[in-house]
Amino acid sequence: MEERHETAIKSICYHCGEDLPEVTHQLDDKEFCCAGCKGVYQILSENNLCNYYAYNQNPGQRFKHEARLEYLDEQSIITQLIDYKEKDSSIITFYIPAIHCSSCIWLLEHLYKINPAIFSSRIDFIRKQVTITFNHEEISLRHLVETLIQVGYEPLISLQDVVKEHQKGLDKTLILKIAVAGFLMGNVMLFSFPEYFGLSGLEQQFQSLFGWLNLAFAIPAAFYCGKDYFVSAITSIKHKHINLDTPLALIIAVLFLRTAFEIIFSTGPGFADTLTGLVFLLLMGKWLKQRTYNHISFDRDYRSYFPIAVTTLNDGKEKPVSINDVKIGDRLWIRNGELVPADAILMKGDAWMDMSFVTGESDPVHKVLGEIIYAGGRQTGEAIELEVIKPVSQSYLTGLWNNEHYKNNVQKQNFNDSIAKYFSLGVFLIAFSATAYWVFQQDSHKAWSAFTAVIIVACPCVLALSTPFTLSAILAVFDKKGFYVKNTDAIEQLAKCDAIVFDKTGTLTTTKNAAVSFNGSINDLEKQIVASLFRNSSHPLSRHILKELNIKDFFSVKNYVETPGKGLSGMINGANVYAGSLSSNLKASRQQAIGGVHVVIDDVYVGNFVIEQEWRPGLGTLMGGLGQSFDLQVLSGDTNKDEQQLRTIFPEKTTVRFRQSPHQKLEAILKLQANGKAVMMLGDGLNDAGALKQSDFGIAITDDINNFTPGCDAILKGDSLSLLPNFINLSKDGIKIIKASFVIASLYNSIGIFYAVQGTLYPLVAAVLMPISTVTIICFTTFATRILAHKNKLFT
Sheet of 557-563: strands edge to edge? Predict the structure, then answer.
């Protein structure tokens, strides 16, 4: 009989539960149906995560109808689903509802061990997304999805934006668990009424029956509704740390064991009412947190981080349009250095795309007419004309902005990270100490009540909420004022800055109403040639000169080159044309070294455009205020013609340097950081990319053009520069709110623990108080942020 049973067990795959083929794969005396199942088991085994199998029988169970994935072999559908495709590399984002704990994150981020054709996978836990980079020549999209299903993480595939499609909805599984927990709690309370009000003679006859019914209801409450807490706690312990679910899992387990003991041995009524009530309230707290956080995240995506416009072409005429209004079929004019906001087909021009925003690879990729150019690419050559084939996905662009390729190497730890683990250990210490005291006093009832109440009332989940809710509320305030910060961690970095470095052109100045004059002699043909060159550049000076020239017909440009901080060059109508800095052109260097944008055609100096740049309003007041709290520097790539005026705007101690190359700006940032300064850098994103990325907090100033650098931490509308001190002060006030939340939570926990250790606080009362404290923190952070936003004149 035993031999037959052993044979039956070995007839199915240990990982997926499928029937074994004639030729099997074996490892650790276990049999698998294929190399994929064996590979998953092997990486779990090597990392001591075989507990993965304890919570779900055959967790890698396969789908029964493989034909349902046939649509993933259709090229037209693959094109719509894929985010990026180049040579042998593709990137795709899946929404995976099954992501729920750190084990999920670990397994999904190690997909490359299951199949080497998968290069990398990044998880967004809040949105339940995974972004996968894979070799599409070695593994098809269908095979990739089959691999995910095989390990138990089936993606929910839709042709709509995964974030906007699913973020509005709540986790249906969580709602089902709340409903089940509420049903169980109601019935347990009903059967416990005789205990609450005293048993009559008739009711005593049913006491044992009521107890067994309560135990029956406690089983699904603990092991279905509370399952996630056990999974999370065990996984965290395996990873050698204690998370916020660990004390909750402990108390659920102890409540259930105590209930089972009292009912089975008829020593008492048990604690089924406390158990079911606690689980119900915990799940309600999780639902509240998820609902609020998802609302904040969706709100940010909807407004978009990008306050930029893209140039559209309509009958050959250029028109700036918000990227929110870009539609399929629109023609876009993308200049040198500008970002492609949507997937499009190249219609005109020579495209050399820097895809480092998407892939991390900085080498430009050449595209020919008719090829697809993916959103997130930056043109590095002449201006190109594109036709949009997919609508703009704000969530995709913002996801790229948070791409790990652009994260600083500095380890950033927020306030809660440094507190939470010590807080959890403190709670355990107090709980076990109180229990030991009452056991020593030979009062087991109070020992039990003290232990359960301390762990429940002192749950540190309140602390986990204070940082994200406070900083998310501040992000929303910033957005409304034209200050688009990358994420909540960046706000804490903003609050720490004590030195500010400014670029001049495009940052302190604006060309909106600047007067343009030309020194020299230029005919209509030369104007047309020069305008054709400037049309390819996104630099504010180029765009302003082009506007003043007012040319409607343009020549095509060949061999276009734009060197940051120096100038533009190209072959136009058979002539070699250069425009830019005088010192950068040897043939023109013999001329008088004056400022402006110099023009050289076929080695003949034509003249120079002089732009009387307009200073942004309120600079004197702004710099006077900042100079009291920050070390200020100005690093300009321009000549020193404006030095005298800058000296009147900035405080006397300000360091002002001219003719600074992008490399010199980067070196200046590094020197400040070496001296212990936390540096904020403000630039236009064109010549300052390296400095913006290196700084502790980089701000790209934009005037409705698509030229910010992916390495920056924030985008600031030029009109909002005067509010910079207000933004900084609110970020510092946000840290104060977080610390105040910690004080409030500590006071609440201290009062609760005072009664809990005495054994006078009933566990169910503690369970009621816990979600109330969560609501209290959310309300406090929301109202405090509003009040401080009013104080800093940022609330409308």
Answer: 509-520, 604-615, 597-601, 575-580, 567-572, 557-563
Pairing of strands 631-635, 604-615: unpaired
Q: CA dist 97 to 59, 235, 245, Å?
A: 15, 19, 20
DSSP labels for 688-701? -HHHHHHSSEEEEE
751 contacts: CB under 8 Å, gap ≥ 6: none
- For residue 124, give the 3-state DSSP assignment: strand
Cross-strand pairs, 136: none
DSSP H/E element including 518: strand 509-520
Q: Are 234 and 225 in contact (CB under 8 A)?
A: no
pTM for the model stands at 0.68
Mean pLDDT, 10 residues at a time, the chain of 796 residues: 41 71 75 69 66 55 55 80 82 81 70 84 77 89 85 71 43 84 89 66 68 91 89 72 71 85 82 82 73 55 60 84 84 88 90 82 84 87 90 72 56 54 74 86 78 71 67 84 83 91 86 80 90 87 85 88 84 91 58 72 88 84 89 86 85 88 89 93 79 89 71 86 93 89 79 79 65 74 87 79
What's the rounded Cα separation, in Å, for the pair 619 and 616?
A: 6
How far apart are alpha carbons 726 and 404 in whole angstroms? Answer: 29
Other beta carbons within 10 angstroms of residue 663's beta carbon come to: 12
Q: Tell me which amino acid residue 446 is.
A: K
Nearest to 335 by CA among 706, 12, 743: 706
